[in-house]
Amino acid sequence: MLSLALLLLNQYSLIFIKLDTILFDTLYYKPLIVRYSSLNRNTASLRCVKKGEIEMVDMMKDGPVNPLKIQDNTLRDGHQSIYATRMRTDDMIPIAEAMDEMGFWAMEVWGGATFDSMHRFLAEDPWERPKILKKFIKKTPFSMLLRGQNLVGYRNYADDVVRAFVDKSCDVGIDVFRVFDALNDLRNFQTCVERIKANGKHFQGAICYSLTQPRLGGDVFNLDYFINKCKALEALGADSICIKDMAGIVSPYDIFDLITELKKVTKLPLHLHTHYTSGMASMAYIKAVEAGVDIVDTCLAPYALRTSMPAVEPLVVTLQGTKRDTGMDVRKLIKLGEHLEKIAPKYQKHLATNKLSLIDAGVLAHQVPGGMISNLISQLKEMNALDRLDEVHAEIPRTRKEAGTPPLVTPTSQIVGVQSVMNVVAGRYKMISNQFGDLMFGLYGQTPTPVDPEVQKLVLKRSKRGQTPITGRPADILEPELVEDKKKIGDLAKTEEDLLTYALYPATGEQFLKWKYGVEPMPDNVKP
Ligand SMILES: [Mn+2]
Fold first, then answer.
1. Contact between residue 153 and residue 504 where contact means Cβ atoms under 8 Å apart
2. Which of 90, 168, 243, 347 has the most CB atoms at less than 10 Å from its CB?
3. Cα 273 to averaged position of ligand 1 atoms, centre (Å)
4. 299 shares its domain with 373
5. What is the pLDDT of residue 128?
6. What sign does the dihedral 174-327-336-251 (CA atoms) show?
């Protein structure tokens, strides 16, 4: 406290700004002596030494030795996860320049559902958003989520569409491409990765995190599975590796083990993406940080927690003064959050309010992602069979195993979910969805385990695709699409971007282009 007082005299203004932080820490560590140690880039680093003990953990050594890097997901996965992807570009602009000053490793601004939601519900040209934001965010790289050969849609597109899409995405300002495939089949990465590398951009190889039991392990999704995928992605030219836990099921000690083991096999930066859904995410981050994870995804507080990502502010304060100190200024982050609080009320109607709980504790028991459960429930309601939900929960692991144990992420989560409901309500494989048939036919790629041969035979007997499943790269059987698309859409597509919008979303894309060029009036419900 004496040294603090002396510093107060010398650097009055600087320390004054940090006083709240110091008081906060002092309150938190009441039995501890708080000792001022050093000033780093942005924050007063505090070192907490337990009375009578020389050192707490290694983590508490003066920081930053190896600062944790932060990717901000507020402008993509944050509002996708809790506000149905409805945030408008206009509401991003007022905080864009200030966000650029924070020192984020990257800002995720595009990809996933943004493309779909923007042109369909917001009547905004998806291609304009990165271009507009780039005018305000000049230093921080832009990141996007790319669904491999599915791009930002829901099916495999032909290679010519994939090449044109990636090239155009680079043109409009995307710097980091996080690429994943629902089956973790790396053949679905091939074409987009070629173009990402040819454009000199950052290829982040993502592995969908999945489980068949409450904790990491078992026959399929064990340490070896993830280690092998990591090595394969490195061989494919990855510049970094992402563990993509879309369902929020990674538990703290499992991620500690996983990061520790991955660090032994690769020198590439490791990036962790998780969701708060089950309530474990913030704990998982701390253990991942202790194991040496290089980058994590967070959102500003108003767009964090629930089914979104952990909030950045508590993480920054938690790591202050440790060797993983982010160096970020929590005060500036809080200011950004205050702005979001001002604009957020109009998005609040999209927030799920049917439950008191901020977390979905059920996920801890059955590992079924939240989005999949809500679809199951609405499907069962339609079939007047809501009382059979428990049976469906029991059916899911069985159907999933027969389908080759796919990770439960869009679209495989819906394919397995819908088929499980039909198996319960109509009898096992009495009804088969087209998508389930396609999965069994190999059209989504190779499943983590072989599909059940009996079920496959039964399904393909009734499939229009034929009896013999494909085993090659799914896109190899697709004909080029863009020339045909151009013929169909004609002059309504005035730019290459318009043509791609139509190629990805023929029905809603064409509708959007009619609004864009005034061919049809824009309905009120899509206007700002
Ligand atoms: Mn996500």
1. yes
2. 243
3. 7
4. no
5. 98
6. positive
